């Protein structure tokens, strides 16, 4: 813990940790030492980790990287961060992210951009988003592991951009209680680590049924680490032909072929498959996620949490709401609230929101058909490119940024688990990752396949 705290203090340029909690960390590390001495050491005893700012942590500022939650210090601890604490993990502080987890580059944060420790010459690169601070902190050895959340790729894309491992578990595997909501039917917590083994250990600590989240699954949590045998003989790996969009880089294609060859050499059967509705996933996601966000974000009204605008004489409650929300939310969040409100409005509900829900069902069925035909896991790229430069994608057209999520949003819509594994470097020397998608609640098998690929 002390070594990590020193490393964090020397890494301000990465802007990964946005609230540091050194006293609390040392206190918890001492308690972990005592437990170790007493021979009562849980799985993550004394392991220093970082916590995404989206998790509510008791007595520690939790802002979701938003101005509207300025000064918000929760009275309660999220279930997942509590579970990690119970498993002995030591929180070093809170990590940077895109505001309310909306973004793919960590450039929408009220704290400013987080920076990827990987760079080309002096060009600053994005660590990805929204869990950009988590990925940067793990990649730069500021902590042994970090929490992330994934609504449409926010664990897997930053993992791929930083050469780290990130798993988005099955929807319902981890409790969402106390994690600030973005899109409730898609959000999932998950670990971001250096190795697949670490991810297995940390996921076990984070997972489990919770009475406080009615969507959390009442299923036993297996010992994921014990499932890492590396034996994948006879497993069927699907290669979806729709994940090869026009203009995809040759390097990613090569990496993908190499990944398939590696799994084949380990005894798996490689099978080309079709997930015909893949092309509709991105538009469906960018209707459903903003719709849910517009509803979830209605609670930030200047009364209950964080920031409240200064009012002028004569201002009433409506002016208070308007000014507070105008000042507190960033541009991307406002855009999503407007899009969400629009697609949910009476006149457009059927044309957009309802249609997107139907598309979501079709996407889910594509995966179900593949699994029913015997496929155990699906191998695909995690991202269409390696990490891009900060500022490079901030164009007038936000859709360009959304295109980054083309390979990741599909499985959130289907509720499936997915893991990003670092598998190589591109010609610029930057990490590239592949993604494995698994059957629901079979994270153990999925991690084992990832282990064979690592
Ligand atoms: N980049 C996607 C978005 O902006 C995904 C974010 C996430 O998974 N939290 O919505």
Automatic annotation (TrEMBL):
Top-level enzyme category: ligase
Keyword terms of this UniProt record: ATP-binding, Ligase, Nucleotide-binding, Protein biosynthesis, Transferase
Catalysed conversion reaction: L-glutamyl-tRNA(Gln) + L-glutamine + ATP + H2O = L-glutaminyl-tRNA(Gln) + L-glutamate + ADP + phosphate + H(+)
PROSITE patterns documented for this protein: AMIDASES
Gene Ontology biological process terms in this record: translation
Pfam families named in the record: Amidase (PF01425)
Transmembrane residue ranges: none
Amidase domain segment(s): 1-447
UniProt GO molecular function: ATP binding; glutaminyl-tRNA synthase (glutamine-hydrolyzing) activity; transferase activity
Active site residues per record: 52 (charge relay system), 130 (charge relay system), 154 (acyl-ester intermediate)
GO CC annotations, alphabetized: glutamyl-tRNA(Gln) amidotransferase complex
Top-rank lineage group of the source organism: Bacteria
HAMAP family per UniProt: GatA
Similarity remark: Belongs to the amidase family. GatA subfamily.
Subunit structure and binding partners: Heterotrimer of A, B and C subunits.
Role noted for this protein: Allows the formation of correctly charged Gln-tRNA(Gln) through the transamidation of misacylated Glu-tRNA(Gln) in organisms which lack glutaminyl-tRNA synthetase. The reaction takes place in the presence of glutamine and ATP through an activated gamma-phospho-Glu-tRNA(Gln).
Record-given protein name: Glutamyl-tRNA(Gln) amidotransferase subunit A
Source organism (scientific name): Donghicola eburneus
């Amino acid at each position: 813990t002390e070594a990590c705290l020193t490393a964090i203090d020397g890494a301000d340029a990465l802007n990964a940790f946005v609230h540091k909690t050194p006293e609390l960390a040392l206190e918890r590390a001492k308690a972990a030492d005592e437990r170790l001495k007493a021979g009562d050491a849980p799985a993550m005893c004394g392991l220093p980790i970082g916590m995404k700012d989206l998790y509510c942590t008791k007595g520690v500022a939790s802002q979701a990287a938003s101005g509207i939650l300025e000064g918000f210090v929760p009275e309660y601890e999220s279930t997942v961060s509590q579970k990690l604490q119970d498993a002995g993990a030591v929180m070093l502080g809170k990590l940077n992210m895109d505001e309310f987890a909306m973004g793919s580059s960590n450039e929408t944060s009220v704290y400013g951009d987080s920076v990827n420790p990987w760079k080309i010459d002096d060009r600053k690169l994005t660590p990805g988003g929204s869990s950009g601070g988590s990925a940067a902190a793990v990649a730069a050895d500021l902590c042994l592991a970090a929490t992330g959340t994934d609504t449409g790729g926010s664990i897997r894309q930053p993992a791929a951009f930083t050469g780290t491992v990130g798993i988005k578990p099955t929807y319902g595997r981890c409790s969402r209680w106390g994690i600030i909501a973005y899109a409730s039917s898609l959000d999932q917590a998950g670990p971001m680590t250096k190795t697949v083994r670490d991810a297995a250990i940390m996921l076990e600590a984070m997972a489990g049924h919770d009475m406080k989240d009615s969507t959390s699954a009442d299923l036993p949590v297996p010992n994921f680490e014990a499932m890492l045998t590396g034996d994948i003989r006879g497993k069927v790996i699907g290669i979806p032909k729709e994940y090869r969009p026009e203009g995809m880089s040759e390097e990613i294609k090569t990496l993908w072929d190499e990944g398939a060859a590696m799994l084949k050499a380990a005894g798996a059967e490689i099978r080309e498959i079709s997930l015909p509705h893949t092309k509709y996933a991105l538009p469906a996601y960018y209707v459903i996620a903003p719709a849910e966000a517009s509803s979830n974000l209605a609670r930030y009204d200047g009364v209950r949490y964080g920031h409240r605008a200064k009012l002028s004489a004569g201002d009433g409650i409506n002016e208070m709401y308007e000014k507070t929300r105008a000042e507190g939310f960033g541009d991307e969040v406002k855009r999503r609230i407007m899009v969400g409100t629009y697609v949910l409005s009476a006149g457009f509900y059927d044309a957009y929101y309802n249609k997107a829900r139907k598309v979501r069902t079709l996407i889910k069925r594509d995966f179900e058909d593949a699994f029913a035909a015997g496929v155990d896991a699906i191998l695909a790229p995690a991202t269409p490119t390696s990490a891009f430069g900060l500022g490079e994608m901030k164009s007038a057209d936000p859709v360009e940024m959304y295109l980054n999520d083309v390979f990741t949003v599909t499985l959130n819509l289907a509720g499936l688990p997915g893991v990003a594994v670092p598998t190589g470097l591109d010609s610029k020397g930057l990490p590239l990752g592949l993604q494995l998608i698994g059957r629901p609640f079979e994270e153990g098998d999925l991690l084992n396949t990832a282990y064979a690929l690592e």
